[in-house]
Amino acid sequence: MNLIWPQFLPDGRRFLFFSNLGPGAGHRQLRVGSLDSKESRAIGLVNSRVEYAVPGYLLYARDGALFAQPFDDRNERLGGEPRQLASDVHYFFGPSHAVFSASQTGIIAYQTAAPPLRAEWLARDGKRIGQLGKSASVRGIRLSPDGSRVAMDIRSDQVGSADIWVVEIGSGVANRLHSDAVDEIMPVWSADGSRLIYRSDRMGPPDLYELAVADPGSEKPRLSLPGVPQPEDVSRDGGWLAFLSEVATTVWNIWLLPLDGQRTPQPWVRTRFNQTSPRFSPDGRWIAFESDESGDPEIYIALTDGGGQKRRISPGGGRRPRWRADGKELYYVASDGYVMSVGVTPGPAVSAGPPVPLFRVDSELQNYDVSPDGSRFLITLPVNDAPASPLRVIMNWPALVNGAK
After folding, report:
1. Where are the domains of the chain?
2. C-alpha distance from residue 378 to each of 215, 259, 372 (Å)
């Protein structure tokens, strides 16, 4: 049971808080407690954090919208019909989080939901080839090892959580692997393309899960750790999972999990800097990754077994490394937004040539993956040029509520 989002009522002695009893919507209670007692009582079921605001309302999010509902703080009771104040509010179901804040002078500030993205194919020269599926709130996007399918997580701003979908590239048929109100995100393919490893808050704090793509109901826990683990890549021989784990809740470091045998996770690189985006080379000898130890994100490669010194690949900033399937080319996104290509001679002593720019997109490149032969790139881009998740302000919101009566 998680007890979260406390907020004092006007008397400064009693407070509201949120009791998250489980992953389902029916397990989320709004409760009231007091500094004068260890007892508390339930007020009702609400799916997001609340704020008390004069002249006697509770504000909360539901179905991606912001509502105000009358609240009798003396008798600690909700009453009357909730009134909608705004739509398209950023809402995350897992921790019952909604991004808004109310002043005591009738002003509300809130953050809108992230704009939808489109998954689009680009050639090596940046020419647009076509769009994959419909525009949606996509975050994770991964091509299968054979390049025939794409796994992605698609977020519903109304539900406040994301589900994993698999799209057949040839036919365009999309299959939804989940449909419940928990977050399933950042899918990673197994080496043979039969399974996905992903992050889910199904049991509360995020853990790693695995399922067979052909059997959507087959999910099972793969790894549970303190903090937030995030899957990143599986080696081509299927022996290792590279994943991220938070250090002191502020820094990401890279860990490796054996997928057979003891299955005990071990740190691969653990420092006070962010080390992210690990990708195994196709022969499994090397890992390309992103690190900000120089002050800016840069791309490095280092031996998977941890021996030797890492080598910096990007001369002036870089993020999100990706390998071509034969290991002879490495890609990354430069600080100026260009997708760069680095020629690589694979082997025990890898050598890398100078980075060569391929193309640059007009909008910020959110995520991307590369076809096995390196001939095209699947990227996620904003549908329009509106700034991501802008803040908006409502002046004199009680007048909206009174006008709706």
Report:
1. 2-113+389-404, 117-382
2. 26, 28, 11
Fold of domain 117-382: Neuraminidase (2.120.10)
Q: Please say whether the beta carbons of 288 and 281 come within 8 A.
A: yes
For residue 189 the two structure tokens come to 């393919």
Residue 141 Cα to chain centre, angstroms: 11
- 55 or 95, which is more confident: 55
Share of the chain above pLDDT 70, in %: 94
The shares of helix, strand and coil residues in the chain, as percent rounded to the nearest 5, are 5, 55, 40
Q: What is the CA radius of gyration of the chain?
A: 24
User: Could you tell me which of 332, 129, 144 has the C-alpha nearest to residue 234?
Assistant: 144
Confidence (pTM): 0.85
With 0-12 / 13-18 / 19 or more C-beta atoms within 10 angstroms meaning exposed / middle / buried, residue 107 is middle
Give the model confidence (pLDDT) of 127-144 as tens digits: 999 888 777 777 789 999
Q: How confident is the model at residue 259 (pLDDT cuts 50, 70, 90)?
A: very high
